[in-house]
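dumping this here so i dont lose it
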């Protein structure tokens, strides 16, 4: 990265630079050979460094982010008025040719977590209440609200909360189709999540998504810590609420009888998310998080990258890091599936970036994806998974999901993520009670404006007060502290009960 007081140029091949802050019209860019801005360039937005002809590819990060829709002069603002994703272009997937060894580490770091009977490590000690269908969602919430309103949990300091897991689906869907299989896989992932020491599962009784099928999918049986309740059998809403409260109160002493202990970082599974991204995301928070991921992987931990439409156009950077060709090919097949899906639905993958992303300086999905992939660091890609599929490998992994943050995060948690790192430039307020969420601001102005929601200010990189590597080390240490019980800002705000959104596919009848 070469930078001065006004612009950031990320690669010698780039046709554009990024404004560090708003540049008035007529500003002289000394680090770009004296180019003068033709108009005001908002902070985080792109300015042309050289003449670009209509139809020419435009480069940022040394990669194509789109094609000029008209001639562009040096100093002009490069954005939606003169840049689009344009026509398709060949990507060199170079399967496995860029695999690097993990970073060398000499220490053996640990975090203070909970070791579950099945050998998995947990970052929180929670009790979950899971609905099989939307029809039981209110009942689930009423039971959870009882433990929020009362002071009973004050007597059990080792229990981090009673958490509702609700959703809007579960019925009027093919009982043998792919949609219900995916929903059962998602809900089942929550039922067996290591951060839940015990789970209450509540169904209505007549829904398509029968809880017995969920138990069968996950190969689990009801017992003292997996308690099923069916509303139609219990006698309705109030009877089920009372039965649920009684069942949880009975097991509180047992769930509390646990202590944190030092565990190797190989027990940690970190979900990677970005939302409300801006032009700084790929410069500050995302690459800094990527370095933290490399450190985590070097210590034996795992990280799950997701949101397939938001790696579109950058997937070739991941395929060359695949440890096996079939892993890279599986990722490419998923990408082609999304292309067919967009065509079938008469849509465009370039409908993402959102209006907020564009206001923050991101123009095309190619540009957004290149910044988003930076969250994965440089670690080798060890596996590619379906949505909410349980992970069975260590290291950097990829899970298929839409670009809607809560939906992707829901799948990552169902796959086994016990922590979540979320970068944002515009100011997303996402959180999760089940997998505690560390929020990483891309710029100082937003961090200062939204300090109640943001955990770390990666804008220090832009301000010249930290390098990407130093920032990544700070994030890595924060991940360990949070895994050991330190509360995130979203936990302090009690954000995360409503952000559970399964990806529902298939015909709804």
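and the seq i came up w/
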């Amino acid at each position: 990265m070469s930078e001065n007081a006004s612009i950031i140029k990320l690669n010698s091949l780039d046709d554009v630079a990024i404004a560090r802050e708003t540049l008035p019209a007529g500003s002289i860019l000394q680090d770009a050979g004296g180019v003068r801005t033709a108009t005001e360039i908002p902070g985080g937005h792109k300015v042309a460094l050289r003449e670009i002809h209509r139809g020419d590819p435009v480069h940022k990060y040394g990669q194509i982010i789109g094609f000029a829709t008209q001639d562009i002069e040096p100093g002009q603002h490069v954005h939606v008025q003169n840049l689009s994703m344009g026509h398709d272009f060949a990507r060199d997937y170079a399967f496995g040719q860029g695999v690097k060894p993990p970073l060398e580490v000499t220490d053996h770091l640990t975090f203070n977590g909970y070791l579950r009977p099945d050998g998995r490590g947990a970052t929180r000690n929670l009790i979950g209440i899971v609905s099989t269908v939307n029809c039981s969602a209110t009942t689930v919430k009423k039971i959870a609200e009882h433990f929020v309103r009362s002071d009973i949990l004050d007597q059990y300091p080792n229990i981090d909360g009673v958490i509702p897991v609700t959703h809007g689906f579960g019925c009027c869907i093919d009982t043998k189709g792919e949609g219900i299989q995916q929903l059962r896989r998602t809900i089942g992932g929550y039922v067996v999540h290591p951060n839940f020491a015990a789970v209450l599962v509540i169904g209505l009784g007549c829904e398509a998504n029968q809880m017995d099928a969920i138990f069968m999918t996950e190969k689990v049986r009801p017992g003292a810590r997996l308690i099923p309740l069916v509303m139609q059998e219990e006698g309705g809403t109030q009877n089920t609420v009372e039965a649920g409260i009684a069942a949880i109160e009975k097991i509180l002493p047992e769930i509390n009888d646990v202590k944190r202990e030092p565990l190797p970082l190989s027990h940690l599974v970190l979900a990677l998310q970005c939302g409300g991204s801006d032009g700084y995301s790929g410069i500050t928070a995302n690459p800094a998080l990527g370095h933290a991921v490399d450190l985590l992987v070097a210590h034996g931990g795992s990280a799950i990258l997701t949101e397939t439409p938001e790696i579109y156009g950058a997937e070739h950077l991941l395929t060359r890091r695949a440890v096996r060709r079939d892993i890279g090919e599986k990722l490419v097949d998923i990408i082609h599936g999304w292309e067919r899906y967009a065509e079938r639905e008469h849509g465009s993958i370039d409908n993402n970036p959102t209006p907020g992303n564009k206001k923050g300086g991101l123009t095309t999905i190619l540009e957004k994806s290149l910044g988003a992939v930076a969250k994965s660091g440089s670690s080798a890609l060890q596996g590619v998974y379906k949505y909410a599929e349980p992970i069975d490998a260590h290291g950097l992994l990829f899970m298929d999901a839409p670009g809607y943050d809560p939906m992707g995060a829901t799948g990552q948690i169902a796959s086994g993520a016990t922590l979540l790192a979320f970068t944002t430039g515009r100011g997303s307020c996402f959180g999760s009670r089940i997998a505690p969420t560390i929020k990483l601001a891309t710029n100082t102005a937003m961090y200062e404006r939204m300090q109640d929601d943001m955990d770390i200010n990666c804008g220090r990189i832009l301000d010249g007060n930290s390098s990407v590597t130093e920032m990544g080390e700070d994030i890595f240490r924060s991940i360990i502290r949070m895994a050991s019980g330190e509360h995130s800002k979203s936990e302090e705000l009690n954000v995360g009960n409503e952000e559970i959104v399964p990806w529902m596919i298939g015909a709804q009848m």
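The chain has a mean pLDDT of 95.
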